[in-house]
Every structure is written in structure tokens, then in C-alpha cells.
Amino acid sequence: MRHFFHLLFHEIRMLWISPATYVAGVLFLVLMAFIYVFYIYIASSEIQATLVSEWFFQAFFWPVFFMVPLLTMRSLAEERRLGTLETLMTTPATAFQIVLSKFIAIYLFYIGMWGLTLIFPFIVEYYRPGLVEEGRLLDKASLLGGYLFVALSGTLYIALGMFTSSLTRSQLVAGMLCFSLLFILIVGGQLLMKQPADVQWLAWLGESVQYIQTFKHLEDFSRGVIDTRPLILYTSCAALFVGITTITVESKA
Amino acid sequence: MSRLDEFRAARWFFGINRSVQILLAVIFVGAINFIATSQFSRHDMTEGNRFSLSPETRAYLRSLETPVRIVVTRPPDSSPQTSRMVFDHLERLLKEYEYAARRDGKSMIELDFISVFRQTDKAEELVEKYGVNPEKENAIIVASGDRYREILGPELYEVNDDMENLFKGEEAFTSAILEVAQEEPLKIYVTGGHGEMQPDSVDPLRGLSQMAGFLKQRNYNWSTLDLLRTPEIPEDAGAVIIPGPQTALLPIEVQKLRKYLDEQNGRVILLLDPARDHGMDDLLYEWGILADDMLVLEPSEEFIAAGGDMLVSRFAEHPITKLLIDSQQRVLFGLSRPVRPDPGAPIDGRTTVIPLLGSSPDSWAERGYRQNTEQRFDKDSDLEGPIPLGAVSERSAATGLGLDLPSGKLVVFGNTAFLSNNRFNSAANKILFYNLLNWALERDSLLNIAPRPVGEYQLTVSRSELGGLFLRLLWIPGGVAILGFLVYLFRRQ
């Protein structure tokens, strides 16, 4: 356990001092601020029944597409390229501890970035008092559900990113691979469901596709309805990918 | 074995070992998720459980015996925002139905959201099987077996006194599901023998086949009844409709109706043609209704349809007319006689008579309509508008315990044409008839589900304020950037 915490603090420190972290963070927050203001603009243009926070979470995939590959592509690919992974494997730390420490460090950073967006409604209220109440920008159920979904889905996306990073020595390849897999996972189901339903095998796949459809789960969570299915889906799949990544690291080190 | 071969064998062994580990892990996770699809739960964290179904609906759904299919057409992206909003509300609500009707991992409610332009086979099914207009947006069908029911747009929303938009979807869907899933359909008898309009006739003016089809869709069975031939009105009669008798009913027939209304807690819907003797004046008198032998004349162009029919838009507050008032709909009538509370009826505390709908204030009821002269309003003989065209009379039965319980119900209309094949699907005729039936059969009070506010809002923020807002939101990334820069400087030192 001592090794694990040692590795974890090291990873967090490395993230803390890396310029790439700040570049990713700033990009993420600028994009989220833009999205937030955009939805406030939509809500001011005509009568709406959907809360701004619901829309805000619906747009969660934009930052995921660039943030997750950017944060994870380095983690294992770079270590392998520099040969430090082999060195690490010679220490008493196990492959699982190495992978898990990196995973948790990136995850904490990811959650921290999202957590900062929670300040947005307070800034809005400070700048224009009354607006938060008018549009229920601090609707507890919606915010709690939305952030819970971000936290849940984040486990899988980061585990997936780490897995792609463990497959190759090239950061670029890892990043591209991660982006492609995220795209398939998040948008793929949606696109598949838009195909004409006459295709037989699609109808057969329908139920499974429905189950993994990110947006379906997100819609529930972002309006404050918590469902246990995505809870199981994301955590179990994240655990699976962390496990596979460990096996890959062990086999390639 | 050489050392090289040993290495190779070991690598093979480890490779297979890892593959098996991965495979087992994938199977394990797959199994967990498979179980999760059927054994799951949902928790509504919103205030007042905005997205949860009422306990009443959940109880009904749990007791569903037959599977119910709900088909909703998905509006294309190009459709107006209101259509998409309606669909949003429907989708959210129906997902809760699907969840609540789950039993052993399988839902008794099957949802089908159809994109008409992409899923052509399903769109065809909608047209052929359920008779839905293919171009209709937000068409909603609730079906079970051969029975189905279309939910109409006006049934979904209402505006309350505070001008707040309320969504009544749950009430509409639960009652529709109950209707189609009910094993025993209610029986409606339509009388014959006096030249009444008949349910199996497709005649545009005197046929009721459209109405009969509508009844069947809504899980009502109908049957014809000759009052002269049967000793009494059958016990399974949910209601008796007398659609425009052309000759007077005999006293013995009227007596059967009287007995049915008084003793069997009966429901009678009587449609009268003008200028025809119906022979039921005494019965109507007892129930506090007067249907004068007059003809309602409507001079106001505003209340006359292009085809010359009377457009009725004045309604009294009543459960039957509430929907029509809320959604500002009109009913297409043909020639009518007045039907009003009888001013000379005996005072009876048990009977309540309410006129339902009326003509315009400019209209009048002409007594001398048989004369071949030009019709003019005559203050002495004619009735001054607005003229009531239909009335309901409800009687409560006193019990030995001093309680008043609802008893028979009599609905009288001075017009038959609004139910005829060529008018049934026009204007709000169908809705009026359906509400009438629901009220008579007390189906409207089956459910006690409160409509929920849609929760609409609009932010009042100007464009310049938006710009200022964005700049202020940039404080956070700006702070992160400054922190990064400080860390960079610190590391350089």
C-alpha cells in the first residue's frame, strides 16, 4: 500500500507541475464557459422547459473528446518510450499499483476540472443577481445528477484512455486511438440507432445499444433521476479496462 | 529442449494465460451488466418527484395483465420547437411508464418512437392498422391486442387559473392503458325500431359507422336494442344511446327507459331531431329538461361554417366541456332544436340540470319554423338567444343512511347530425362525444392524477449582458492559467 501511495503522490505532483496539465485545464474551462453562456443565450431567446444545467451536461462530450486523450495518452506510452516503465517494474510496486496510481491521479484532475465549472452559476448570480433563480441554474437534483454522471462516466473514459496508452509507445497513436474509441462509445450508439430500422441485425442489437447509449443515461441523470444501470455499466467497464491495462503493462514490460 | 525453446514455450504459456484472464474478465463484466439490465432501480431526486409517476398509475401498471404497446411519432428536426417539446415531455414520461411496468426484468409496456420519414414500414402500419394521418405530428397510439386508442393533443395540456401550462400526460396515458388493457369492454346499446341512426350504416347523413369504429377503438362494445322486443334494458348496458328517433317512442318503451334510469342507475344519451315527435316529453319533464318543438336559427356569420352548419363555441363549465373550453375548440352542428332546463319542472332536490352548450346571442329558437314565410324573431312566441342546444340531468339517490349517491344520468341533445358519419371527425365533435361518454360512464373520475406544471421559464438577459457574463466566467480559466504560469516560473528558478 505504501508503494501505491508513493506512486499516487508522485503522479499527482507530476500532473501538478506539468505545463500540459494547465493547457488542458484552461482549454477545458474556456470551452465550458462558452457552452454555459451559449445555453444561457438559448434560454433567453425563447421559453424553455429544459434547464440550462441539463443542456450543459448534454454537451459534456466536447471536452471529453479532447481532454481525456490529452490527459491519458502520455501516461504509459511515454514511460515505455523512455524505458522508465521497465525500471518501475523492477521496484517492489506491482503493475496494478502503477496503473491504478496513474488512473486515480488523472481521474482526480478530471473531476477537479469539472468541479471548477460548479462556480459558473455563482459567478452568474454575482454578475446579474436574480438570473440563477429565474432559470433555476442551481437546481440541486439536476446538478447532483449531472456531476454524478460526469464522475461515473469519467472512470470509464479515463480507463479507456489508459488502456490505449498501454498499447503503444507513441503518444500520438495512443491519443488517436483513445479519441476513436471514445467517439464510438459516446456517439456510435446514437448513430447506430439513427440507421433505418429495417436492417435485421440492428434490430437484434437494439437492446444492447440502448443499454450502452451514453446520452440516454445522461438525460436521466442531468434532470435528477438516478438509475443504477449506468452505475454498474461504467464502474464495471472501468474496472475491466484497468485490469486489461495492468495485464498489458505486465506483458510488455 | 533448448533454452530458446523453453523461453518460447513460456511466452506461449503466458500469452494464453493472459488471453484467458482477459476473456474471463470480459465474460464476468458482461454477466454483471446483463443482470443489471433487468435488476435495476431508479431514484427521482427532484423536488416533489417531478419525474415520477403517481402511486395510482404505478398500482395500475403493476396489475397489467396484457402487454401494452405505445407508439409515438418522432417529430423531424425541422418541425417547430413546440412539437419537439411535446415529444420531449412524452418521451420522458413514457420511459417512466416502461420502467414502472417492469416485471421479471421485462416491461409490460413496449415503447415505439417512430421517425415517420425513415421507418416507412412502421409509418405504414400506423396508417393501415390505426388509421393515423401520416402527416400528423406527435401521433400517439396506445394499443393492446386488437384494441387501441389514439391520444389527442388537447388531452395532454391544460392551462390553469394562474396561466401556468400543465402537462396532463400521465392522466391521459394511464386512462388509455386502462381502457385498452381492460379485459371486459363496456357495452353500449344503440336503440332501433323508430328510424334511428344506426351504428352499422355508412350513410354520410344518417349513418353512425364512424362513431361505432371510434367506440370499438376505445374498448367499448356496441349492440343494437329494440325496446319493444326486450322485456327490459339488459343489465350489462353501460349506456343507452337513442340517436334521432323519427317516430315517437311508445309509452311502454318510455317506461322501460324510465325504469332503467330510476332503478338501474342507468345512463341514457338522447339525440333529438328537430320537427320530429319523439314521445319522451313526460320522461324529460320528470328529469327537468324541456326540448321545445322549435328550430334554432343562427344568423351570425361568425358561427356558421362554410358548409352552412352551425358552429357551436359557447359551452357551460362542466366536465364534459372542460377540454373544449380550455383548448378553445368548436363543435359542428346541423339543424337543432333547443334543449333547456324545464322552468316548469317539479322542484326536486335530487335532480341537477345543466345546459351544456349554446348558440350565439344573435340566434333565436323559431316556433313557426313550419310556416313558409321569412323567419324573423318574434318576442312573443320565439326564444331569445343564446339558445341551449343540449343539457345533462343527473339524479342522486338518497340512501337510508342519509347519504346522497349519484344515480341515473340523462344527456339530451337537440341535434343528431353532429354524430353522423360526415361530421363525426370534424371540428371537436369526436371529443365532445368522447367526453360525454366518459362522464356518463363515470370514467372521467376513475383517475385522480394531478397534472404537473411544465416548469417553463425564460431568462431575461440582454446580449451585452451575455458578453459581460462570458468575460466573467473566464475568471476561472484565467485563474488556472495564472497558477500554471506561477508554477512554471517557480520550476525555472
From TrEMBL, chain A:
Naturally occurring in which organism (per UniProt): Rubellicoccus peritrichatus
Domain ABC-2 type transporter transmembrane: 58-205
Lineage: Bacteria, Pseudomonadati, Verrucomicrobiota, Opitutia, Puniceicoccales
Name of one Pfam family that matches: ABC2_membrane_3
Keyword annotations of the record: Cell membrane, Membrane, Transmembrane, Transmembrane helix
PANTHER family: MEMBRANE COMPONENT OF ABC TRANSPORTER YHHJ-RELATED, MULTIDRUG ABC TRANSPORTER PERMEASE YBHS-RELATED
The organism's place on the tree of life at top rank: Bacteria
Principal localisation: membrane
A GO molecular-function annotation: ABC-type transporter activity
GO cellular component assignments: plasma membrane
Protein name: ABC transporter permease
Membrane association type: Multi-pass membrane protein
Chain segments annotated as transmembrane: 21-43, 55-77, 98-123, 143-160, 172-193, 231-249
Annotated localization: Cell membrane
From TrEMBL, chain B:
tRNA processing found in the keyword field: no
Keyword Ion transport: no
InterPro entries given in the database record: ABC_transp_unknown, DUF7088
Keywords (A to Z) from UniProt: Membrane, Transmembrane, Transmembrane helix
The organism of origin for this protein: Rubellicoccus peritrichatus
Entries under Pfam families matching the protein: ABC_transp_aux, DUF7088
Domain DUF7088: 48-136
The protein's name in its UniProt record: GldG family protein
Coiled-coil positions: none
Chain segments annotated as transmembrane: 12-36, 469-490
Domain ABC-type uncharacterised transport system: 187-423
